[in-house]
Amino acid sequence: MGNQMTEMLKGTLEGIVLAILARRSAYGYEITAWLRDRGFSDIAEGTVYALLVRVEQRGLVDVEKVPSEKGPPRKVYSLNARGREQLAEFWATWHTLAGRIEQLRHTDNQHDEGA
Prior knowledge:
The structure is a single chain. The protein has helices at residues 3-23, 28-37, 45-57, 81-114, and strands at residues 26-27, 61-66, 74-79. By secondary structure, the chain is an alpha+beta fold. The protein has one domain (3-114): Arc Repressor Mutant, subunit A. Helix 1 (3-23) packs antiparallel against helix 4 and helix 2 crosses helix 3. The mean pLDDT is 91.
């Protein structure tokens, strides 16, 4: 992944993780694997775990410790009502920003054609 993609992803990763958790509860490694399976191959597990700690501290997720066949119990994260509100705000912001970027791109193309 290029540096520009990495920087953009940093700003949106929380919303992406909340969107994953809106579909179903998951633990950190599952989230990382899901992201990697969908082309986000450069995301480090540590990045996802640090983000999960932050969203837990902000009260956006509920956490349940589930016994693991190997090692200590796993922390399974589920999106709660406050997290759903945050996700709705993320999607609204994403929609607005994406629209403005598309508008800028089309304005630039029209300007280039007229030059």
